Amino acid sequence: MHLNSIKHIRRRQLISASIRGIVLFFTVLTLLPLVYILIYIIKQGIGAINWSFFVQLPRPVGEAGGGIANALVGSVLIVCVATLMAVPIGISSALYLSEHPQGRLANVIRFCVEVLTGIPSIVVGIVAYDWLVKPMGSFSAFSGSVALAIMMLPIMIRSAEETLKRFPTHLREASLALGVPYYKTIMKVLLPCSLSGVLSGIILSVARIVGETAPLLFTAFGNPYLSFHIFHPMHSLPLLIYNYAISPYDSWHQLAWGAALVLLCWILLLNILTRMIIRKWSVRY
Amino acid sequence: MERPILEVKHFHAWFGTHEVVKNVNLTLHRNEVVAVMGPSGCGKTTFLRCINRMHELTPEARTEGQILLEGEDIYRMSPIMLRLRVGMVFQRPNPFPHMTIYENVLAGYLLNNIKLSRSDKDAIVEDALRKAALWEEVKNNLKKKGTFLSGGQQQRLCIARAIAMKPDLLLLDEPTSALDPISTAGIEELLQELKKNYTLIIVTHNMQQAARVSDETAFFYMGELVEFAPTRQLFTAPKDQRTQNYITGRFS
Ligand SMILES: Nc1ncnc2c1ncn2[C@@H]1O[C@H](COP(=O)(O)OP(=O)(O)OP(=O)(O)O)[C@@H](O)[C@H]1O
Ligand SMILES: [Mg+2]
């Protein structure tokens, strides 16, 4: 072969190798802090985890032990109520967007979703305070759920729309040609076929807000006791972490680390669940 | 003489301002098989989709004239009722991916919330799959998803799904064009069988296929129904020059 072209290839291989090196370097650079944070939380938090950590209430300062039962129950309740509120609105908006992509209302919805994505969570909290806490006269888990539901909407709508949009015309026609009315085609063909994508969008949006603190500060507010009443103040994991982390007591710091670990595991589980759903239930067209 | 199952009178169809079907007149009797032929883009699919009112699902679509199903104007019926009576098989096999083979055959009932007893369901599934010549191949795998089947099997599943509704009329739009020769031969054999019980309209580009399966052939050219005659006559002694040109392969 011509000497010149061999040199040329060598040069290209060199460039290729160095670019690969750079990419690898930055990948490791991004992963490092992530891994470090994970290890650190596990290391700090694991000591706090035991049975009473999950089932007991926080003890007053000075007393050892105690747990985060109130925050755990509170978080689960607040997130469930938020999901129940967000899902019907989110999925119907996504349906509308995918069915009438060009409509005027579709543009309005898209615009709202974009704006909503950019609103800082603390502002959503303040809005919920203004809408609900003030008129109702008390902090409540419900108002916290509303704030979280608003934060869930953009992610849910986007991912559901993406999935629903991919639904092929030939299947829609297959259903209509069997004499199936439009709305039944939506409910019994379109939605079931898109189930895995829609569900994983819902779960991802839950994972996104499980750890939100700011929207809960002036809504759910927090509560040192166990409460199941969604119109009363309620504790939650992020609030607990926030309160205990800025406290001066070592035992509270310990609880906060434990709670952080629980939160981390929760989010991790949600992500794993999403992957399982996608693998199990996704439909190939 | 018995009342015709389908009468098409002065029928036109448009996409926007583009007239795709022009003044079609045609009469079809029970248990007849009509092949619809013509060059690509001449409006065969559009015509077929007018008969079960799928055409109107396209925005800007418009029609004029009459189509009577057993004497009843289809544009005065609810499209839902019409489509329950007029089945359709598409060019591309389209079984429902979220349903098993068993559910796919029953899809017309399940999706319309028509309640059936377990034994009725089993009977309908077996009967439809037998008629679609698929029963022997899938009888042990009824709980598998319909999309696991081969293309030809999927198409037969779609035919089973359509005939499970016991339609008065079955429309098939190039049902074998996406299939290999062996599956095609299978489907053609099946059409011969179906002739005994059903009235069929088949769009096809394949003249041998038309000659083999149909009693009558309709030749479309640029949206017009140029010639509609018994198949043998149309192939051996076409009246119109354009039909003559087409069957002798002078244009595709
Ligand atoms: N959805 C649509 N919107 C606008 N025009 C369309 C649409 N579908 C088809 N047409 C037009 O209508 C005409 C007839 O199309 P049609 O699909 O009925 O032809 P065809 O005879 O079935 O052709 P082929 O043999 O290729 O399937 C074509 O000129 C096509 O461009
Ligand atoms: Mg066509």
Automatic annotation (TrEMBL), chain A:
Domain named ABC transmembrane type-1: residues: 72-274
TM helices/strands, residue ranges: 21-42, 68-96, 108-132, 138-157, 189-210, 255-278
One GO term (biological process): phosphate ion transmembrane transport
UniProt superkingdom: Bacteria
Alphabetic keyword roster: Cell membrane, Membrane, Phosphate transport, Transmembrane, Transmembrane helix, Transport
PROSITE patterns xrefs: ABC_TM1
Protein's UniProt keywords contain Protease: no
Matching Gene3D superfamilies: MetI-like (1.10.3720.10)
Membrane topology: Multi-pass membrane protein
InterPro entries with a match to the protein in the record: MetI-like, MetI-like_sf, Phosphate_PstA, Phosphate_transprt_permease
Subcellular location: Cell membrane
An example Gene Ontology molecular-function term: phosphate transmembrane transporter activity
Cellular component terms per the entry's GO annotation: plasma membrane
Similarity remark: Belongs to the binding-protein-dependent transport system permease family. CysTW subfamily.
Protein name: Phosphate transport system permease protein PstA
Organism: Thermoflavifilum thermophilum
UniProtKB/TrEMBL annotation, chain B:
Any one GO biological process: phosphate ion transmembrane transport
Highest taxon in the source lineage: Bacteria
Protein's recorded name: Phosphate transport system ATP-binding protein
ABC transporter domain segment(s): 6-247
Key words, A-Z: ATP-binding, Nucleotide-binding, Phosphate transport, Transport
Pfam families listed in its UniProt record: ABC_tran (PF00005)
GO molecular function, one term: ATP binding
InterPro entries: AAA+_ATPase (IPR003593), ABC_transporter-like_ATP-bd (IPR003439), ABC_transporter-like_CS (IPR017871), P-loop_NTPase (IPR027417), PstB-like (IPR005670)
CC terms in the record's Gene Ontology section: membrane
